Amino acid sequence: MIVGSASVVALGAAALLAWGLGVPVWVAPAVAGVTPNAGATNEASGGADDDQAPAQAPALDLAELKRLCATDLRRPLFDPTPVKPKATAAAPALSALRVRLIGTANEPGHAMAMLEKSDRTIAWCAEGQSITDGGGVLTLAKVENEKVKVLYGGKEYELVMPKRPPLLGGGKP
């Protein structure tokens, strides 16, 4: 039984080989108008016979050709040095603003901060409000528990309440 199956497979392979050798193979050429077999038609030229002249390549404009030849296609071997930005006026330092956070009231929709200015006056500010002190404008951006985020000189800073001194006797307030 195994010998019979092997002979059927061998006959099938031989038949497939004979059929494969008898089928003509045509590979499409890379150049339009050129066919590998005489008398065959070229699908690229719309089925025209080979006795016709191949299609002419479009003529290039001389100026266009010069422009293409002048184009530099090479990449540089290294990156060019970056251009240094021009110096701009420096933003005032946070130390120039002598404002101290001394309290926060953090309620939903009513968050405020108590700030002490350099002239020892107290200012209550809500989020988005601004105060002036030390030659600059400070805008209160966000109030959190015992700290605030402020905008000063185009930068964001965080002010934190100072630590409370311990109470006498170690009790809680």
Jot down its keywords.
single chain; alpha+beta; SH3 type barrels; four-stranded antiparallel beta sheet; three-stranded antiparallel beta sheet; 7 strands; elongated
What does this protein structure show overall?
The chain has a domain at 94-160: Roll (SH3 type barrels), CATH 2.30.30. Helix content is 17%, strand content 24%. The protein contains 2 helices and 7 strands, in the order ααβββββββ. It has a 4-stranded antiparallel sheet, with no helix packed on it. Residues 38-42 have low confidence and may be disordered.
Q: β content, as a range?
A: 15-25%
- Overall, the morphology is elongated
Q: How are the strands of the biggest sheet laid out side by side?
A: 4-5-6-7
Q: Indicate the CATH class of the domain at 94-160.
A: Mainly Beta
Question: How would you classify the helix and strand content by structural class?
Answer: alpha+beta
- Indicate the CATH architecture of the domain at 94-160: Roll
What is Rg? 43 Å
Report the average pLDDT across residues: 74
Largest sheet descriptor: 4 strands, antiparallel
How many β-strand runs? 7
CATH fold-level name of the domain at 94-160: SH3 type barrels
| C-alpha termini separation | 102 Å
As a percent range, the share of helical residues equals 10-25%
Low-pLDDT regions:
38-42
The ordered H/E elements are HHEEEEEEE
Enumerate how many helices there are, as a single number: 2
